[in-house]
Structures are given as structure tokens and as C-alpha cells.
Amino acid sequence: MSNIDKRAAIAAYKKRDAPAGIYALTCAETGQRWIGHSPDLDAMPNRLWFTLRLGNHRSTELQAAFNRHGQDRIAIRIVERFEEDIQPEGAALKERLSFWRDKTDALPA
User: What pTM did the predictor assign?
Assistant: First the structure.
């Protein structure tokens, strides 16, 4: 792939509509749950696994579960997708996260 093709591919990727929303993680071994949000749900799994493999995820409980049980025992699922024109921010986003954490008895991811 030439440099021009690479630049075009990167530009196209950055211009794409990225779905934002809230995701849940569940450890199959312990049943522990975590809820988080992402401005790009498509890229979130790669980013999440990368930080966990590096050992520096901000959730110490999630990092410990990953270290103990491994990636194969932690499942990711999307619990809420935000409409492109209706994406909560600030207090509204915190309210949605709180709703899902309360509903699923989950920790922050």
C-alpha cells in the first residue's frame, strides 16, 4: 500500500460515523460486572484489551480479573447505543452510566 493510499484510508477512517454508547463487561468466572462508555464502540474492544494487556487499566478490579482469568473469560456487550444526533454528555452521560450500573449491579469500567 502506497503512502497516498494509507493517508486516504486513515482519512476515511477518521471521517466515518463512529457509534457512541455504553458497554458492559462480565467476568464468566466471578460474575463481576463493569459498565463503561465509549465515543467509538467499534474501536472500544481493541482499546480495552490493549490497556488490559499492558496492565494499566484504570479500573483495578477489572485489571485484577483480567490478570487472574484472562481475556477469554471476560465478555463485552453493548447495552446502549446513542443516536448520532442525541449523544449525552456531562451530567446526562453520568446519569445513563449510573442507570446501567444500578440496573446491572456493576462497577465503573
Answer: 0.82
Q: What are phi and psi of 4, to 5 degrees?
A: -65, -45
Of residues 71 and 86, more confidence is placed in: 71
**Do 10 and 35 touch, CB atoms closer than 8 A?**
no
> 49: Cβ–Cβ under 8 A, 6 or more apart, which residues?
71
Q: 86 phi and psi, to 5 degrees?
A: -130, 85
Q: How far apart are CA 109 and CA 87, in angstroms?
A: 19
Instruction: Give the model confidence (pLDDT) of 12-59 as tens digits.
Output: 555 657 899 999 999 999 999 999 999 999 999 999 999 999 999 999
Residues 76 and 48: beta-carbon distance below 8 Å: yes
If you compute the radius of gyration of the chain from its CA atoms, what whole number of angstroms results?
Answer: 16
